[in-house]
Amino acid sequence: MAAFYSDELVSEIVSANDIVDIVSAYVRLKRSGSSFMGCCPFHREKTPSFHVSADKQLYHCFGCGAGGSVIQFIMNAEGLDFPDALRFLADRAGIRLPEDGGGALNEQRHNRKQRIYAMNRDAARFFRECLLSPEGETAQKYLTKRGLSGKTIAAFGIGLSPSGWDGLLKHLQKKGYDRALMVEAGLCIQSEKGHTYDRFRGRVMFPIIDVRGNIIGFGGRILDGDGAKYMNSPESIVYDKGKNLFALNIAKKSGRGYYILVEGYMDVISLHQAGINAAVAGCGTALTREQARLIAKSPVYLCYDSDEAGMKACERAAEIFKEFETKLRVVTISDGKDADEFIKKHGGEAFEELLKKAKTVTEHRLDMLLRDVDLNDATEKIEMMGKAAKLFSGISNAVEREIYIARLAAKSGISAQSINSEVRKVNAKNIRKEVSGELRKTVGTTQGGQKSKRRTMAEAGLLSMMAESEKVYLKFADEFTSDSFSEDIHKQIFDHICTYYKDGKDGRCADFLMKAMTGNEKELSTVLMVVQNVDNEMQAAHDFAEAVKNEIFNEKLQKAQSEGDIALISELLKSKKQKA
Ligand SMILES: [Zn+2]
Questions:
Q1: What is the pLDDT of residues 421-433, one digit of tens each?
Q2: Residue 434 alpha carbon to ligand 1 centre in Å
Q3: Which helix H or strand E contains 329, and what residues bound it?
Q4: pLDDT one-digit tens code per residue, 349-365
Q5: Which of 220, 279, 270 is nearest to 245 (CA)?
Q6: What spacing in Å lies between the alpha carbon of 67 and ligand 1's midpoint?
Q7: Which end of the chain, N or C, is less surrounded by CB atoms within 10 Å?
């Protein structure tokens, strides 16, 4: 992918964006020597294992293995592909990407995207005109009945797709777009016989707009007749369902400092109309990690429908956000099925009250447990108690746990003491499970596993130091060949390090390796970041080199022993004695 842009341009963009600066916008970093540490933004953790090196301009998480340069970081943190991440960083540094993008392929892709954005905009205008025309009367009535003002309809660009087969197609053709592009963008469908027709027919149309203001797709709600209630644009070069949230472009600017995640387009629109413009929704999919990541840094109110499916979706969302340690609250809609219905009945102020009364996830789960239980029925009560104990055992904060236990005690009439004893039982069971798991792990590695891990670490340490210091390279490189390394990736890194020094060191070695080993950024950062802030580099490098040689020797010896090759064994032992 990097080939779309010239190496020089990529280097310029990378060096204009200091990795510590960039990461600091996402992670609270603490300095330790020339490197920095923090809690990984890509997996859930309490103790920091996420390292950023100012010297190497790399990051690596020793917890989940994420790693790379500032480009990979932005790709992961913002959910962008390589060209978009590069554009993001170029924008930030005020570097103008050349018109030709440095490569024809990228330029083509970029142009096609721009063409689809323009076409989608024209389609949205067409849908809007259609809604305002006599043909749109039924749709307008429907929207009015659902309580939407003309202002709201205009603000969201809501329109109508005509009920014929080619209204949009003809319109776009007149505007100069070709059929292939319409099919690619999902506005039209091509039948097996090659016949092209409008995808959305007789539907109220909701444009889906990304945070940069581009229309990337549409959601269409059927007015009457057969067909699915909602239909969405298929994924395309501009539209990745799992990475977009409906109305995020507006909610991002709400200034409220939090988001409200609701289920449907109509919920979002009703809330916005009521002045609560922090609402967003998934676009016809169950919440994905990428979608959650878009809003996870701010507090999030989960506001799902109060039916069974809604409750399940809410649980799922809570699990996903847990990974990002998002401050979560669950809004319970006491009256009416969803936010839309509630707002219509009670208005925006009443909804603001609901937000104030929103519960923590644990409170909410506890309420759900108690909701369907007949406390006079002993069996049901015992079953509920078991579930509650599991819920409580997951709370690591003792004070928090006490509070919830007291609450359950008050509501259920079970004594806090009995609840506590149930929780302890669950905890003991969990600990037993963990211990046996650990044991299995240890047993698994004694069969040769631990040794090779030691070798891997020593190799990585040596390579990391060679990449960092030419002195280390000059002193130790001759003692090794790529065959000295046990892992393929280490062999490659060694070869590239040699090339780097032999070819006259153009730029930083870490950058050179990143470029030379595109696609292996994660593995590379694992190696390069293994050693940091060493006091005596030559001593450290010497120790790693000796460790590698030792492991090679031990493995040879072991092999000779298992094969009963006495001659080789004595030769090996003799050579060892000579060196010592
Ligand atoms: Zn991590």
A1: 888 888 777 665 6
A2: 21
A3: strand 328-330
A4: 999 999 999 999 999 98
A5: 279
A6: 9
A7: C
